Amino acid sequence: MVIMTRTDPPRDVIRVAVSTVIFSLRRDRPGAPASVVLPLVRRTRNPHEGLWALPGGWLDATEQLETAASRTLAETTGLAPSYLEQLYAFGDVGRSSDRVVSIVYWALLREGAQLPEDAENVAWFDAAHLPPLAFDHNHIVEYALWRLRNKVGYSRIAHGLLPDLFTLADLREVYEAILDRDLDPANFRRQVENSGTLIPTDRFRTGSHRPARLYRYNQDVELAERGPLRDPSPTRHQKAAS
Amino acid sequence: MVIMTRTDPPRDVIRVAVSTVIFSLRRDRPGAPASVVLPLVRRTRNPHEGLWALPGGWLDATEQLETAASRTLAETTGLAPSYLEQLYAFGDVGRSSDRVVSIVYWALLREGAQLPEDAENVAWFDAAHLPPLAFDHNHIVEYALWRLRNKVGYSRIAHGLLPDLFTLADLREVYEAILDRDLDPANFRRQVENSGTLIPTDRFRTGSHRPARLYRYNQDVELAERGPLRDPSPTRHQKAAS
DNA sequence: GCAAAAGTGTTCGGCGTACACCCATGA
DNA sequence: TCATGGGTGTACGCCGAACACTTTTGC
């Protein structure tokens, strides 16, 4: 157990942690512009006690990296991510008092995710206005935001922040919140329509002005490249060849 | 069962390794088309003994990740890379007999790099035709190649494979070797000229037909984004807060 | 009817591609 | 003078940006 080794980790021991930067969207009130938020946990133990930090924990020797990331996510938010990707391995000598290599993941949650009722020491923060965090976590979040903004430009990642049914305005507002600038509704419509990732439904969202058509995400299309090919066993291509 | 010459590591111990995929270019003879090559080392110890593997080693507890990558590179090739970037952290439970998390880097060497005379158990391999490698190293090289091909499309990374002075044809051949397709010399010229990354010199390469102007790389421009902003010590935000 | 968002049409400029063409050198 | 690669000019097509315009609802 962890507490045991805490007394005196030998000088040559390197420990492996897994943390996750979890992005979601929140609006102050319905109709208000959305902003990017992420959950942080308050540290209750020795290094940086009292500061907010990324959710994470020690990697178990029998646990896959991605499983560890999902676990920390479930433990803090109680929800499953719509997207999960490795971000970077942070391992600078000076980033903690003893030597820790953190494999950091980043994840997306669909808009409207709620923290469990009994969540203690967990809270949502506006990604653009973070307090000083524990360790190098400000640095890590900045990099995750950079990756998010980057990836939104060449992938369909933004869908990971939306519920199953959404309007084109919903989707556009996701892009606007991430990129922090306004987009032309007319051009935006054509771009996503031509991308082949949206399935129009017969349903409309009513309530204000002209009703907007609801769309569904085309599950056949991957949200984005998530890193090295997963599961080298049976892909569609290999199945067809056999 | 695996025979360990060392005392068996406890079941809950996770060890951290650093490996590097090092790309360079080689031509069978001057003027011949270039191909992407990488150095591999033959394993002389127990797991996968005799198989070729990526150069690497255990991370020292007092050693920065990137330093460890550079060290393995120097130990095998005796040369300094022109580019070095973290690729991915591979940590699947089944990838080794005991639990190893490998922080893998990828690097570029300028064309013409020579292995040291006394190099034993090290050899260059054509990246497109690798034998079965130790562990998941075939998988890792494939991913590094994907990243290389990708990055060549939106960054100036290809310069990292060339010497200080080069012709536009040299540079074009780098792209052609990486992308494995021919490029229009006329259009290629305009694209790189407009990118502002090349400094024309007054020198020409003579020897065959019309002499070609030699160019130099503009050092003011970074080859590419290499990951999280380096030097995490004093960020603007933390300075202001203190 | 009016405001406002949904949705369509049109124009313009940049940029990548294709390709014709001229230039300079070695043999 | 010819072959060959260096280097220039030009036309086409696509796509993103800008923006005018029509449609459909709530009030």
Q: Separation of termini of chain A? A: 46 Å
CATH topology assignment of the domain at 2-155 in chain A: Nucleoside Triphosphate Pyrophosphohydrolase
The topology string of helices and strands of chain A comes to: HEEEEHEEEHEHHEEH
- The fraction of residues assigned to DSSP E strands of chain A is 25-35%
CATH superfamily of the domain at 2-155 in chain A: Nucleoside Triphosphate Pyrophosphohydrolase
Q: What oligomeric state is this? A: homodimer
Shape of chain A: elongated
Q: What is the makeup of the main sheet of chain A? A: 7 strands, mixed
CATH class of the domain at 2-155 in chain A: Alpha Beta
Q: Biggest chain pair contact, residues each?
A: A-B, 36 and 36 residues
Content-based structural category of chain A: alpha+beta
CATH architecture of the domain at 2-155 in chain A: Alpha-Beta Complex
Radius of gyration of chain A: 20 Å
Number of helix segments of chain A? 6
Helix content of chain A: 25-40%
Mean pLDDT of chain A: 87
**Uncertain stretches of chain A:** 1-8, 231-242
- Number of E-type strands of chain A: 10
